[in-house]
Amino acid sequence: MARNRRGKERKDRSGGAEQLPWARVQNPFPPLQLLRPDQLDAIDEAAFTILEEIGLDFLSPEALPVLRAGGAAVEPGSQRVRFGRDVIRHWVAKAPETFLLKAREPVHDVGFGGTEMVFSLMASAPNCSDIEHGRRPGTFADFCRFVKLGQTLNAVQVFGGYPVEPCDLPAPTRHLDCQRAFVELGTKPVHAYSLGRTRILDALEIVKLGHGLDDAGLAADPRIISIINTSSPLRLDGPMIEGMLELAPRNQCVVVTPFTLSGAMAPATVAGALAQQHAEALAGIAFYQMIHAGAPAVYGGFTSNVDMKSGAPAFGTPEYFRATVISGQLARRWRLPYRSSNVNAANTVDAQSAYESMFSLWACVAGGVNFVKHAAGWLEGGLVCSLEKIVLDVELIQMIRQCMEPIVVDEDSLGLDAIREVGPGGHYFGAAHTLARFEHAFHAPLISDWRNFESWREAGSPTAMQHAHERAKAFLDAYEQPALDAARKAAIDDFVDRRKREGGALAA
User: Fold this and answer.
1) Which stretches does DSSP call E strand in 44-181?
2) What is the pLDDT of residues 96-139, one digit of tens each?
3) How would you class 424 by CB atoms within 10 Å of its CB: exposed for 0-12, middle for 13-18, buried for 19 or more?
4) What phi and psi values does residue 104 have, to the nearest 5 degrees?
5) Spatial distance between the Cα atoms of 46 and 35, rounded to a whole number of angstroms
6) CA dihedral defined by 190, 191, 197, 203, rounded to 10 degrees?
7) 131-140 pLDDT, tens digit each
8) What is the C-alpha to C-alpha distance for residues 302 and 312, in angstroms, rounded to an integer?
9) Are the C-beta atoms of residues 57 and 43 closer than 8 Å to each other?
10) Taking the alpha carbons of 291, 297, 299, 301 in that order, is the dihedral positive or negative?
């Protein structure tokens, strides 16, 4: 990395657009405390009441013996499970407070917990959009383009799932092509969907082959992250449970995230929605520890509100901000890493998409979030991954990163010599102090246009969305596929070909 005159690393100009160098991001700000300890006690107590008196349905017969052995009470003849508070405390305490998620290349390893913030590309959108081709169902070509962009962008640290669903691939074998693409096109940590046992086992095998590991090597460190969504209210479905049963013994990471939209799948108050979220998250994490004590687990928060007239989810709202911050207080109380998201409900890359996303991101900063899922690309409440929105979000993430950097206050930065040089009534454009910092004095935007109105109009009045589109193309042009050992690649290809012949997820 080139360095400027003061010895600091210069910004990466990949694709002709400046970006900050890749780094493990630390949040220096103390988390916001929206609730008093006694109010947090009340949410804990409400969650215990839910777990003790109402319980959760675990929709898999395989889960029930594990739960009984762990001390939970399984209602005879049903899948309803109730948890005593001592059982919850015992098992949740076994989850690690911090852990390292390994990448194919060690330079891209990231930490979960403490003050670290990890940002992932958007995941699970059925559609994608860009200026040139409009809104459309996702294809494998779109999927690969987003993976390449995520690999090139330093602000994206984790592939948090399929950035767009490749709807042109057969569903039973789609996961094979996608997991292979993650490993071959990128070097950053990957996600695998817990959509049944078969898909998880295939993903584990592809990561083992791509990383050059045997079973023991895979179990030594987490290499895969998987989101476990409860089917709120108060249910955990069979495919998710199957994924947990395979991931836990192999020491891989799950993020237990209740889908608690207030007014729809949870009570129409922030406190009530958080009580239900808390109960579901604690139950899922306790179950994961019952399978394999010490397996890494993250407390996931996704509580927001819905529009009560239409039922549509709303994001980047005051309710979302408060729920995100309070969830962080709850996660830290239980000494668990914490996940939230950068989300919005805008239908295009406009002012709404920017202010709701910035509000969501600042909620993550204020709430001490460790894993920011959907950090770049989310649009339409999660129905679309937008090429331009990825770049806009990276701009926001970079601004937040720079706000987190320490401010230097020393003789040089105070600039007294420059003030003496300029004196009353002058300007600093030509001062030696300014010229020494000409390229790197201030934030270098990816898409913000700081020209005056006349020169902006002469350039064709480009919008932020148009700037973002051009930057995205520049980053994609700069993409270089990372090297992968030929033997590892051949082994992955052989495995994928064989599993496709067997039917993929349809194979018993």
Assistant:
1) 56-58, 73-74, 80-82, 99-101, 110-112, 116-121, 127-130, 134-137
2) 999 999 999 999 999 999 999 999 999 999 999 999 999 999 99
3) exposed
4) -65, -35
5) 15
6) -20
7) 999 999 999 9
8) 15
9) no
10) negative
The total of other beta-carbon atoms located within 10 Å of residue 481's CB is: 10
Strand residues in 380-463 grouped as ranges (E): 384-386
CA distance 168 to 141: 9
- Position 266 scores a pLDDT of 95
Q: Which residues pair with 128 in a beta bridge?
A: 136, 385
**Mean pLDDT over the full length of the chain:** 94
Beta bridge partners of 228: 256
- Under the banding of pLDDT at 50, 70 and 90, the label for residue 174 is very high
pTM above 0.85, yes or no: yes
What DSSP element (H or E) covers 225? Answer: strand 224-230
Residue recorded with tokens 């394999």: 292
Structure-block tokens of residue 473: 């193309």
Q: Could you report the per-residue pLDDT of 136-166, keeping only the tens digit for each? A: 999 999 999 999 999 999 999 999 999 999 9
What DSSP element (H or E) covers 306? strand 304-306
Residue 258's H or E segment, with its range, is strand 253-258
Residues contacting residue 495 through CB under 8 Å, at least 6 positions apart: 205, 206, 209
Span 420-452, pLDDT tens digits: 999 999 999 999 999 998 877 778 889 988 899
User: CA 26 to CA 365: how far, in whole Å?
Assistant: 10
What 416-423 contacts at long range (C-beta under 8 Å, 24+ apart), as own/partner pairs, is none
- Sign of the Cα torsion 214, 215, 219, 222 reads positive
Show the CA angle centred on residue 270, arms to residues 50 and 305, nearest 5°: 110
Contact 126, 167 (CB under 8 A): yes
| Encoded tokens for 338 | 């914490």
User: What Rg do the C-alpha atoms of the chain give, in angstroms?
Assistant: 24
Is the distance from CB of 161 to CB of 374 less than 8 angstroms?
A: no
Question: Considering Cα of 180, then 340, then 293, then 110, what sign does the dihedral take?
Answer: positive
In 3D space, the residue among 356, 397, 359 whose CA is nearest the CA of residue 380 turns out to be 356
Q: C-alpha 215: how far from its chain's center?
A: 27
Q: What is the full DSSP assignment across 191-202?
A: E---SSHHHHHH
Q: What percent of the chain has pLDDT over 90?
A: 92
Contact partners, residue 8, CB within 8 Å, separation at least 6: 440
How many CB atoms neighbour CB 469 within 10 A?
A: 21
Residue bearing tokens 């005879």: 76
Number of H-type helices and E-type strands within the chain = 18, 21
Angle at 109 between CA 401 and CA 387, to 5 degrees: 55
